[in-house]
Amino acid sequence: MTPQAPAQNNFLSRATDLVNRGFSVIPIEPRGKRPSGPGATSRTRDLETVKVWAASWPDANAAVCADENITILESDDAARFRSFRPSRSRRSSRSERGR
Questions:
Q1: How many other CB atoms are found less than 10 A from the CB of residue 47?
Q2: What is the CA radius of gyration of the chain?
Q3: Domain-located, residue 95
Q4: Which of helix, strand or coil describes residue 9?
Q5: Which of 27, 42, 75, 88 could be a cystine partner for 81, CB 3.0 to 4.6 Å?
Q6: Rounded mean pLDDT of the chain?
Q7: How open is the CA angle 49-50-53, to the nearest 5 degrees?
Q8: pLDDT for the residue 67
Q9: Residue 53: which domain range?
Q10: 15-30: b or e for each residue (b if 16 or more CB lie within 10 Å)?
């Protein structure tokens, strides 16, 4: 079995993974929610733009932004959120704190 290289945990690797899955992204402050640079109106799926941002904010977190293809729902009530059944396919994820 070939050992795997450790996963990169920086803006470029996180944002590239999200863009490759079809999401629009922006850099946000590490362990926060405020944009590190451009705001949500500058969201992108362009990997060249992501590379430019990564050079400026290598330690930023990557935030998914709603766009013409993605609707984001957030709730602090997990039970109520699970009861929601949208008519289209959905993906869900947990925040770093597991909420």
A1: 14
A2: 15
A3: no
A4: coil
A5: 75
A6: 81
A7: 90
A8: 84
A9: 11-83
A10: bbebbeeebbbbbbee
- Partners of residue 27 on adjacent β-strands: 62
pTM: 0.68
- Alpha helices in 1-99, H assignment, sequence order: 11-20, 47-56, 78-83
Structure tokens at 23: 């999401």
SS3 assignment, position 13: helix
Could you tell me if residue 45 is inside a domain? yes
Rounded to whole angstroms, the Cα distance separating 64 from 51 reads: 16
Statement: residue 46 has pLDDT above 80: yes
Residue among 10, 2, 1, 4 nearest 56 (CA)? 10
Question: Three-class SS of residue 35?
Answer: strand
55 in a domain, yes or no? yes
Q: Using one digit for the tens of pLDDT, what is the confidence trace for 56-66?
A: 999 999 999 98
Query: Is 6 among the domain residues?
Result: no
Total domains in the chain come to 1
